[in-house]
Amino acid sequence: MAIDERSRKALYEALEQRLGVAEADTMMELLPPVGWAEVATKEDLHQLEERFQARLQILAPELRAEMERGFRRVIQWNIGTVIAMTGVVLAIVRLA
């Protein structure tokens, strides 16, 4: 049975009538905001971590290589820019 807002409201109203407002509030706060099938357990998180670590091990060399290529491109652009700007500054100095 799927828990929806209508059934949660009905539960709250029943608890409120039998236990009182404060107790009904406390009980509702103890329930998850979604159905129990949607709640992750520690085992779910552990399995997720293992899968993530396995994927990371596969992708790490590829990611590192891509980062190195990117760094090389940035350095090349920076060197080119510095050389070009040096040329511009020298030309301005000669003209002045």
Could you characterize what this model shows?
The chain is an all-alpha fold and 96 residues long. The protein has one domain. Helices cover 82% and strands 0% of the residues. The protein contains three helices and no strands. The chain has helices spanning 5-19, 21-30, 42-95. The N and C termini lie far apart (85 Å). The model has no long low-confidence stretch (mean pLDDT 91).
Give a brief description.
This protein is mainly alpha-helical and 96 residues long. Helices cover 82% and strands 0% of the residues. The mean pLDDT is 91.
Kindly list the characteristics that best describe this protein.
96 residues, mainly alpha, 0% strand
> What's the number of helices?
3
User: So what's the overall shape?
Assistant: elongated
Over all CA atoms, what is the radius of gyration?
A: 31 Å
Distance between the termini: 85 Å
Q: Averaged pLDDT, please?
A: 91
What portion of residues is helical? over 70%
Question: Secondary structure elements and their pairing?
Answer:
Blueprint: H1 5-19, H2 21-30, H3 42-95
